[in-house]
Structure formats: C-alpha cells, structure tokens
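Archive entry: two folds, one per protein. Generate the first.
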Amino acid sequence: MNPDIHGLWPALLLPVTTDGALDTPRAIAHAQRLLQAGCDGVTLFGTTGEGPAFTVAERKGLLESMLGAGIRADQIIVTTTALALGEAIELGQHASRLGVHRQMLMPPFFFNQPRDAGIIEAVSQVVRGIGDDGLKLLLYHFPAMSTFGFSHAAIAELVRRHPGQVVGVKDSSGDRAHSLALARAFPQLAILVGAEPDVAPVMCEGGSGSINGLANIAPRLMKRVMSAPDKVAPADAQLILDLLKLLSIKPGMPFVGVYKAMLAEQTGDNAWLTMRAPLSPLDNTELETVRSGYRAIGSALSHL
C-alpha cells in the first residue's frame, strides 16, 4: 500500500442545525467516535459530508476546531474542492499551514466534460498555488458528480508534473473494473475506493484502502474487511450489501439523507436528520422505511 495515504478514512457525515449551520460539537464527537473505532483518519468536506455546500470560512473553522479538539493533523484528509480555483487554493493553503498535508480535490464541475488539458491545468494551478512541498494530494474521480473523470493520461501527467505531491486517486466511479485498472496501472499511487463492496478486491490488487460513506455507520465492519481483504468473512460481505440496500430501498432518495437516517437510528440522535440546502431530509415514509430496515438487520448491528 502507498505509505502516503492508506487505510480507512470515512467520508465524514457532517451534522447541521435546523437553520443549516454546521454543528461543530457533534461533528467533532462523530469524528472522535470513528477514530476510537479504529479508523485511520477522517475525510472532511467530501460529497458525503455535503462539502461543496459550505463556505470557505465554515470549512476553515471546522478544520481548526477539530485540530483544537485534539484530532491530529495526520488523521485528516481535507477536501478542497471549490467552484473557483482561488478558493480551492485558499482552502489548501490554510490546511497546509495547519499541518494538514493530506488533501483531496475534484476540479471545478460547472462545465460539462472539459478536456484533459483543462483538468490537468486546473489541478496544477491548485498545487502550485498551495505551494506546499509536503502536499499529499488525492485526485477525486467522481464522474457522476463532476461530469468528467481523470483519465489515465491525465493522472500520469499530473504525477509527472508534481512528483511526491500528487500521490493517489480517490475512485468514486462505483465501477470495480475501473478501480482495478487504476490499481494495476499506478502501483506507485494510493488508490482509495469509494464503493464498499469493491474495497477488498481492489486492495488485493494493490489498492491502498477506502474513503467511503458506510464507515460512518459501520467503521469496525469496514476495518475488519480491510484488515484481511483476501479472507473476508461471508457474513461481513453480506452485511455490507444489506446495509447498502437501504440506500435504494425506496427510489430517488439522496444517499446522504439515508446515511444520516441510519446514523440517527444508531445513535438515537435525531439532530442527524437535518441536511444543508439544497439537499433536503427524507420524508416521513422514506425515513421510517430506512429506520425499520436498519433495525431489521438485527443483532449484527452490535458488531459494526
């Protein structure tokens, strides 16, 4: 596994208050629970964490608060994705000054299907703008969200331009064949997978670990799978599938809302049900369907 970033880094769900503000104490407590459960670190402000909906000031403030609460800088990957490259640079510089050198970037996604040359230049401008020799940047590949992906040629060029700074890819394609191809083509890079059923197979081919949403709910389960990816217990593999089925138990539900509903059921804390606009909470029927489905998984939940 790549020594720069490896292991389990949950895509941290972020709690918000009823008026949409970040709930910093709950966010810190949730991150600490996941670290205590054995996660290698946490990933802030990805899509699961509703990251693009928060301002630069909010994102800086939460990072500072987490560090102030005793979470180490090397236990955080901070997502710097922003619509303006200048804001991505500002977020990256801020994190680097605080010692948070592990960062993740999806280039601006408001233009459909930009050319490789533009994607490469966008990332290069951010890396140069941050100006951190210790930067450990993951390229965030999520074509369903961004309308484009990082081609193998673009990845190779960015690694050539920024050796030791562009260190890996977070693959949220949900395509196992794509993730396996990345691991085989770039054995020197950290390849972290977002699709939970694909984590073990990709790790067996040289993948470095995972940044995923389910780890918010089942960190010990995901850690068990990753500790012996070639010997995943059938019961654990099935439990992952059973939990993921709740994401589509009713059509059209936002995956972030489903994860928050599961976490609210798990913790008994309904404050987790609130979302940051433009996302909206599950309706009552959806919510009860998810919560009852989560309860129905039964005794296995105690081992998550």
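Generate the second and append.
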Amino acid sequence: MSVPNTALEIHLASRPQGWPTELNFEVAEVAVPEPGDGEILVRNLVMSVDPYMRGRMNDTKSYVPPFQIGEPLDGGAVGEVVASNSPEFAVGDNVLHGKGWREYAIVGADHAVKVDSSVAPLSAYLGVLGMPGLTAYAGLLRVGEFKEGDVVFVSGAAGAVGAIVGQVAKLRGASKVIGSAGSAEKVRHLVDDLGFDAAFNYKDEGPVIKHLAELAPDGIDLYFDNVGGEHLEAAITLLRLRGRVVLCGAISQYNSTSATAGPNNLALAIGKRLTLRGMLANDHGDLREQFVKEVGNWIADDKLKYDETLVEGGVAKAPSAFLGMLRGENTGKMLVKLA
C-alpha cells in the first residue's frame, strides 16, 4: 500500500489536574518520515490504552519518563511494516512496539518484535499475550509466590490484568479465587464466564471489607492489588499469617488531587508477617517465553478466556477510550482500532 505524506497522532495538550478530560489531548497532523538506518516505518493497526499512562501525564519522577506537553504520547501498539531500513524486518511483517497514539510510527529495529497473526489475533499481543498478560502471570506466580491451595483475592478483576490473574490462579490449583468489579454484569461475567469462585460489586452498599469477609470468612492467602485504597486495607485485615500482596496498581488513587493516605491498618503486617511487593512487568522478561507457551496453550485448549473492548473510529478516539478505561467502562483489555 502507498504511504501518505501526513498522518494523525495524539499529543498531550496540558497536564490533567485530577481527572483528565478531552481538553488535555490534541489531535495533530504531522509529516510521515522516512525510516533511518536500523529503523522501520509501521502503519499502526491497533493500540492500547493502559492505567499506567495516567501517571505519565504528571510531571513527576517515576519508573518511566513523563509525557511531554506538545509531544505525542506513546504506548503499546501492533501494526504492519510498510517501509524497512533494517535487515531484520521486511515490508508486510506484523510487529509489536511501544509507539502507539499515532497512525504511523518510526520504530528502531531493536524496539520491535515480530508477532504471528496465525497464532492469535494481533490485538491479543496487546492484552492476554502482551504486557497485561505477563504482568498477571509474573505477578501471581513469581512476585506473589502463589502456592497450590491458596485463597486468592483480585481487585479490578474484570480488567485486562485481573481477569488473567484469576484464571491462572484457578488453573494452577487455587482453592478459591475471589474478584471485585464495578458492576453486577462484570460480577456475573467473572463467575459464569471466567470461572472465579465468587465475586462482588464494590459499588454495592457497604464497605469492601464487609463483602470480602462474607466471601472469605476464613481469610485469604494472596491479594493481587490493581486498585489500592479501601481494597488494600480490606485485604490486609483478612490476610492470613504470612500472606502476600502483589502491588500492581492503584487506579482508585490515580486521579486524586491531594496526597493519599496509606492503609490505616498497615501495622497488622508486622504481626501477620505479611509480604507486600511492588511489581513491573519489565522486570520479568525472562519469563516471556514460558508465559507465552503456557498461556497460549491454555487459550488454544479453551481453558483460559480473554476479553477485549475495541473502540473503532481511528486514532482520534484514543483519548475517549483512555478516559473510558479510567472510568471502568471496559471489560478486559481496552483497545483502539486505528485502521
């Protein structure tokens, strides 16, 4: 196919104060460049929006640099190579890379990975077989030191990471898996479709601790935290001796305009000898081959299911998809179809 002279990309127009709005983003038309030595030009087909992107919109030091005002945002994307200046890639190859939020991307050959659409749809490499899937797999099995027979609680369980955590726990022999989600339909989905033993709607009347205690009267062994706040506090209360917490995300606090207090009951971690560990998928790249093989086999055998919420309409829809993801409007991975 011919490559256009110009294409669209999304820039950060201003830094959000609290909840982002459409005004924090700008659609820009830019020239499509030629790839330099060791580079490829990729026509993006599907891109990802993820909770961690909210933190990068703040001008604060973190494990990844903040987005810059007036510059394009980035994130996971899959696309087709349309021009190559690298012997490692040919025109027509499908690749996974980190330059989303734009229709065409220049990518260094060492920052792109070939993906096979005959194994799974390209979109799967942004979700169940991509960063969210590896986050769930490594977080549960390595960081959380999952043991057969554990009682596992997962917050944000209908999201891209949480849904995989719960299913992997069941497939690896958890005695009980409990999830929390933000609607009655998501609760039904967790239990009826994904095989969770129990789930609750955290928006229902009563505190999280009440709902969790009813479903885990004898306590829990492992908590996979995607939410933070009240969920983390409830889990600490109900964790048994030498329980473990995987600190993966704290989406309930990402849009706070004031400092957020830690759990009021953190002192319980002393007597219970709890382990609370933060995790990033990038630290566990050595597990990728094992992860893709095991999870890929489960998908092929219909033992593990995954969901995608696909927003159509091109790159201009990326900001609204991102905002919808922060509001919990997605089931499974939130994606944007670019072409």
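Annotation attached to the second fold: The two ends are 13 Å apart (CA to CA). The longest helix spans residues 131-143.
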